[in-house]
Structure formats: C-alpha cells, structure tokens
C-alpha cells in the first residue's frame, strides 16, 4: 500500500513557508505574461499552416475545441494552484490525492513533456533565425544548420543555433527568477505587439471567398487539426509550477492561469481567421514553417514579413524559457521528495535557483533539439500534456471527495461535471494521435516505472519518515 501513500496538504504548505528556498517575485501581471510567454510561439507562427491544411478555414473551430479542452483543465488547475501553492504543478497535486506512484508517473511524464517542448521549439526557432540571417546574406554551413536527416538532399549533422539558444536560456534561468521574469515580460509584449500589427494590417486583405468551403474535410479534419494545434496551448499549466515563487499564490495563480489562456485563445482565433481569409488553405502546402509570413507576402506586405520573423523568434524564445523553467521546478520538487537524487534540489546560495538541475536538463534539451528533427518531437509533447490534464482533473474530483473542507482560494465550478468534460475532451484528442506516438509514450513510462521501483520508492522522503 506504500505505492498509494500521500503527502499532507498542510504539511506541504508549512514546509514551503518555513524553508529558505525559492524567492517569491511573481505577481498576477508576471504570471499572466508567463503563461502567454509559454503559449504563444511555435503554434501561432508555425502550426497554423499545418492545421489549415487539415481543417481549411475550419481551423478557427479547431482552436476552439483545443481551447475548450484547456479551459476545463485550467479550471481544475486553478483550484489546485490556490489550494496547494507548492512547486511541482500536477506532480504535487497527484501526490496529495492519488498517491506516490501516480505522482511519480505524472512527474516523469512532465519532465519529458517540457524537455521535448524546449527541444521542438528550439528547432523551429533555429529555422526562423537562419531565415533572418539569410536576409543579410549570412548562412551557416549545411552541417550545422539542422539535425541529421532534417533537410532532404543536405548533409546535416548538428543544429547549432537550436543548441546555443537553449544554452543561453539555461544560463538566464540559472541566474535567478527576477532576471528571467524581466526578460520574459519584455519579449511577451514585443510578440503581442507584432501579432496585433498583423491583425490590423491583414484584416484589409481578407477575401471572404477564401473561407469557402469552411470545412473542406468535414468534422474529421477539424478534429485532426485540433489534436495538432493543441501543441499551441502547451504551457499555460507551467504557471502552476511557479507556486513557490508567486506572491499570494492562492489569489494570483488562478488569475494568471485563466487570464493567459483566455487572451491566447482569442488571439489564435483572430489570427487563423485572417490568415485563411488572405490565403486559400491549399497554398500553405510547402510553406508550413512560415504561414503568417506567407499571408503577408501574398497580401503584398513583404516589408512586414520581416517583423513576423522577429516576432516568431521572440515568441519561441519565451516558450522555451517558460517550458524549461517549469521542467526544472517539477524535477526540483521530485528531488526534494526523494524520488530523484537530492543533488537535483540543491538551491544556489547566491541566485536562489535550483542551479544543478537547471543545467542538466537544459543541456539534455539542447542536445535533443540539435540532433532530432522537429517532426519527430511535437506529437510526443502533445500526448504528455493531455495525459497531465487528465490526471489533474481526476485529482480535483478526488480531493473534493476526500477533503471537502480544505481551504480553497478558487473553486472549480460544477465539480465533478467540469473535470469530467476535461477528461473526455483530452482523452478524445489523445485518440487522434498516431500509434507511434503512443508506443514512444508507453516506452518512456515503462522506463520511469523501472526507475521508481529500483530507486525512488526506497529513497522517498515518505518512506524515510515511515522508517523513523
């Protein structure tokens, strides 16, 4: 039964307050921008083209479906973030509701999810960055432009820009949350400005005839696109990982979660509507890596396409920053609980950051992005995220039943209906992913179970307290 041993919510909160750990710097504004920084990036600048080829102008509905799955999950996250304001996100929530084994599985899943998110986005970032360099007549040698086999007909060995940007972000995160917060806030405002400029310019070039037929591949195409563009929402849950660095987390965390998700959903719908209104969806084929730039080029606004490249570079940088930040905080919490070696949860005396784990995970993520093509990474990120959303929705139902009187700064409405809808929607989107994605996901979970039963179970802090 020790597989289901659970942590006390009150003990978690008390230990968090008493420990000389992470520095509390983040307000509602910072948390909202943290969420937007994580959400808007590769999705809006890259995956909108891929989604349009599957759904046509119906891509707008695909974003609504994916957004609804996130919205129901966000309400569950908001309740937990206000109730258990401790670092670790859904890993910690699972520990207090479903027990240690479930917590380990979801923690192991989150480490993979965020790591691959950083790797996938770094590859997309590299493409836009090299496009920008090319405008100035600067080109890298083929061997350093992309991962092996990523460019047909070219001998590529290592994606150098992808690796270097992850190393730069790792350095920033290792130096402190205050510095990271400032950089993220500035970059988020820049990319929102670029997106709003696209909306203001693009709206004058819409041809309503391009929206016909609205759903050329029917509901199947819309749902398939929803499963793909779900990647665009990856990251709003990263806000909950900032629990121990947020001021008044019971109030600020739920607001940061919901505000960022709402703002991004509106921007996604507007951008996809304008983009498919300017360009007939079949024309995105072969241009999936820069669909927004393509729309402006067709509109005759080539001068502004360069701004889109800059916005994409800035946008993807913030996505990597927040994803790597969230990943390190989950691993930090797991290490503090004894499920990973204690070395990973050591806090730097000067910077007050989990310095060791930040560099280890940053280097691994950088190498994956440099050596593995992006197309082999993205779907695996989606399945890990959807699985996490299902677990947090189940946990809300369980905690309401087991501890109904626990103080909650925010209460998810209509429990268990809302969490149940979240579970159904996320499970449906998971069913739309390819079998190879499922196979890779199950292999990763199997490796995690081996580590748990050979190391984590006996080194668990709960196991040590029981022995005493």
From TrEMBL:
GO terms for molecular function: amino acid transmembrane transporter activity. The keyword Transmembrane helix applies. Pfam families: AA_permease_2. The chain crosses the membrane at residues 28-47, 59-78, 90-108, 157-174, 186-206, 218-236, 257-283, 303-326, 355-374, 380-399, 411-430, 436-455. InterPro entries: AA/rel_permease1. It is a multi-pass membrane protein. Keywords: Membrane, Transmembrane, Transmembrane helix, Transport. It is found in: Membrane. GO terms for cellular component: membrane. The keyword Transport applies. PANTHER family: CATIONIC AMINO ACID TRANSPORTER 4, INNER MEMBRANE TRANSPORTER YGJI-RELATED. This is Putative amino acid permease YhdG. The lineage of its organism: Bacteria, Bacillati, Bacillota, Bacilli, Bacillales. The gene is yhdG_1.
């Amino acid at each position: 039964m020790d597989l289901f041993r659970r942590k006390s919510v009150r003990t978690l909160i008390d230990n968090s307050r008493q420990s000389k750990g992470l520095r509390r710097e983040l307000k509602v504004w910072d948390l909202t921008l943290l969420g937007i920084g994580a959400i808007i990036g590769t999705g809006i600048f890259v995956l909108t083209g891929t989604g349009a080829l599957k759904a046509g102008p119906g891509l707008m509905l695909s974003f609504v479906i994916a957004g609804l799955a996130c919205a129901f999950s966000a309400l569950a996250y908001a309740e937990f973030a206000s109730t258990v304001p401790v670092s670790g996100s859904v890993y910690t929530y699972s520990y207090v509701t479903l027990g240690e084994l479930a917590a380990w599985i979801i923690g192991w899943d989150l480490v993979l999810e965020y790591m691959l998110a950083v790797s996938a986005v770094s590859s997309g970032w590299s493409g836009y960055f090299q496009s920008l360099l090319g405008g100035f007549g600067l080109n890298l040698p083929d061997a350093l432009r992309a991962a092996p086999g990523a460019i047909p007909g070219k001998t590529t060995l290592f994606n150098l820009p992808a690796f270097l940007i992850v190393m730069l972000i790792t350095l920033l995160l290792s130096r402190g949350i205050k510095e990271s917060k400032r950089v993220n806030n500035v970059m988020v405002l820049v990319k929102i400005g670029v997106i709003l400029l696209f909306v203001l310019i693009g709206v004058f070039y819409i041809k309503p005839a391009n929206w016909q037929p609205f759903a050329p591949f029917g509901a199947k195409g819309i749902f398939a696109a929803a499963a793909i563009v779900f990647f665009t929402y990856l990251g709003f849950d990263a806000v909950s990982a900032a629990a121990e660095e947020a001021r008044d987390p019971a109030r600020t965390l739920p607001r940061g979660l919901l505000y960022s998700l709402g703002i991004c959903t509106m921007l996604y719908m507007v951008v996809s509507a304008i983009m498919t209104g300017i360009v007939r969806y079949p024309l995105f084929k072969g241009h999936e890596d820069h669909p927004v730039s393509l729309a402006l080029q067709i509109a005759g606004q080539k001068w502004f396409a360069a701004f889109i490249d800059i916005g994409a570079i800035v946008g993807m940088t913030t996505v990597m920053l927040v994803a790597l930040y969230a990943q390190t905080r989950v691993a930090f919490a797991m290490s503090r609980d004894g499920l990973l070696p204690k070395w990973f949860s050591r806090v730097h005396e000067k910077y007050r950051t989990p310095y060791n784990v930040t560099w280890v995970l940053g280097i691994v993520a950088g190498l994956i992005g440099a050596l593995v093509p992006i197309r082999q990474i993205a779907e695996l990120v989606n399945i890990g995220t959807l699985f996490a959303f299902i677990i947090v929705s189940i946990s809300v139902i369980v905690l309401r039943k087991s501890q109904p009187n626990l103080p909650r700064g925010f209460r998810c409405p209509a429990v268990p209906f809302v969490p149940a809808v979240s579970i159904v929607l996320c499970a449906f989107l998971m069913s739309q992913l390819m079998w190879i994605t499922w196979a890779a996901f199950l292999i990763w979970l199997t490796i995690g179970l081996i580590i748990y039963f050979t190391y984590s179970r006996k080194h668990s802090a709960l196991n040590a307290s029981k022995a005493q």
